[in-house]
Amino acid sequence: MTSTGTATEGHEAAALLERTRDAVGPHLRAAVETLPGAIRRVALYHFGWQDADGTPTAGPSGKAIRPALVLAAARALGGDAESAMRAAVAVELVHNFTLLHDDVIDEDTTRRHRPTAWALFGVPDAVIAGDALLALAQRLLAEDPHPAAMEAAARLSACVIELCAGQQADCALEEREPRDVTLDECLAMATAKTGALLGCACALGALYAGADGGTVRSMDGFGRESGLAFQFIDDLIGIWGDTGRTGKPVGADLAAHKKSLPVVAALTSGTPAAGELAALYGGPMNTPGEVGRAAEVIERAGGRDWAQECAADRMARAVHHLSRAVPDPATAEELLALAEFVTRRTH
Amino acid sequence: MTSTGTATEGHEAAALLERTRDAVGPHLRAAVETLPGAIRRVALYHFGWQDADGTPTAGPSGKAIRPALVLAAARALGGDAESAMRAAVAVELVHNFTLLHDDVIDEDTTRRHRPTAWALFGVPDAVIAGDALLALAQRLLAEDPHPAAMEAAARLSACVIELCAGQQADCALEEREPRDVTLDECLAMATAKTGALLGCACALGALYAGADGGTVRSMDGFGRESGLAFQFIDDLIGIWGDTGRTGKPVGADLAAHKKSLPVVAALTSGTPAAGELAALYGGPMNTPGEVGRAAEVIERAGGRDWAQECAADRMARAVHHLSRAVPDPATAEELLALAEFVTRRTH
């Protein structure tokens, strides 16, 4: 992976994210506080500002990557980050709309070490709270007097449709036989589900800085490719683990029979190991032995090396996009630090 | 109920709705066709353009009341209805977003004599298709060069949040004991769930006609009060029926223990019949005898007369709002005809 001397350790990005949380948090909360009572309660719980009974808690445990990208992109292109605040909040609201609905759809019961909103308040309240966050995001942009707001709203709406397509594809792929899933389908799904919103965040920052169309597209490409790099890394962690840093146990995705990118790469590798893996995916993988064997087979089929190369390749593409949008490396530093922070977890 | 010589029979409104469907339909369909494949399939089914297997069908069976209100409001205020087309389509998309999600939330399996989308495609696909229709509505407005588009987008987003609050309140009221529900709560719920979008449709038409703030508010009031009048009529039909016209069987809402407005009015009437009704609502009402007895008790408690008076009162308020926005009765005729069409079903 490409790395810069200043950003590799992630200290700069961590500090930037903390500053972003401090700056965006009050605006985000003020927006959520405008929601009608019963919906507000679910939203305040989901974001981590309240317990289920309304007791105040420590506050959002999300990393605020997306708002940080909006503000950093605006700054990198000579814009005033403060004036892009509504766009930063809108992107974070959209991200949380997807989390609320995805948890319902995937029947996930835990997020950030707490029960998911639907598990606590029921499916109706979680679906409705998600809907309201999406509408609130759009409302913020539609009421924003900034000259870029309307184009940003159009771009964000198009991105939401892409996120929907990604989530739909994810569900559809999970239903299918592992050996019938192609790598192209998995990549398209990851692009829509993970890349689109990171790309949109960067594009919105560029729009709010008054950038031209080509620069906006390059910024979108930077965020999108960074998101894909992240997805490869996340899929590697889901198999070979990185428990010290993420808390995600080794083999978690394998035990869940997840069709992650390294798995599908291995299954479609045409190697003898592909058949072995298909057989393993046809049965339960509950014991450490079974999971370990699957991980070993995926590695033998080339899935691990391939995913690591893809992560590096996507990161290189991201940097290339960024260098077109922001030729001066010093000015691009914040964005590069964020991209490396997102993807550095196994490095 | 207030009536005008020209509109009472509903012929004018029926013709206007047919013209609206002809005019809006192609734009609505073109918008839906831009959705990604798997989501488009669910949306085309939901609107009635396709069967589950993709076979073309007769097309939308919805009445297109909301787009008709947008276009009629624009025309009544001297605007060009054609230029308000995107707003009309956006409002219809938002309406259908609520139908898709409400059917999931309420676990309703039938809509317009066909299986609901979630019953056919599953909860994930129906939730995602609803999300996508909402995002598509916002995208249409955000990409609309009309000078009113941004204010319309803000108003529509605020309306969606109100719709969410109405649906949330509806769920919450259904969970509670019938005698603990107040009439104010029911009215607030009906205002948010039914009145808000009809009001928003009229307000968007006014915005696209370049109307001032006061006129836009009056138009919102007209649509909103018409919506409430409709809700009272619909609740009356849900108890005493109007099978010839609507196909809704007598007592359907009672068998479902629905806390409709006449029921809550009766329960909170302070009459001896209120206690009788509470007792009936505490048990099953499956036989025609039980349902008939409940209907008789609600009538004795004053619930039927009250609801009829409220419907007439709301319609009078609607007409009052309309006369402020559009003083010339001839110019207001289309809108009046639509409002009377919506509420005329038992008259």
From TrEMBL, chains A, B:
Similarity-based family: Belongs to the FPP/GGPP synthase family.
UniProt keyword terms in alphabetical order: Magnesium, Metal-binding, Transferase
Domain of life of the organism encoding this protein: Bacteria
Protein name as annotated: Polyprenyl synthetase family protein
UniProt lineage: Bacteria, Bacillati, Actinomycetota, Actinomycetes, Kitasatosporales
Pfam families hit by this protein: polyprenyl_synt (PF00348)
An example molecular function term from Gene Ontology annotations: metal ion binding
Species this protein is from: Streptomyces nitrosporeus
Gene Ontology BP annotations: isoprenoid biosynthetic process
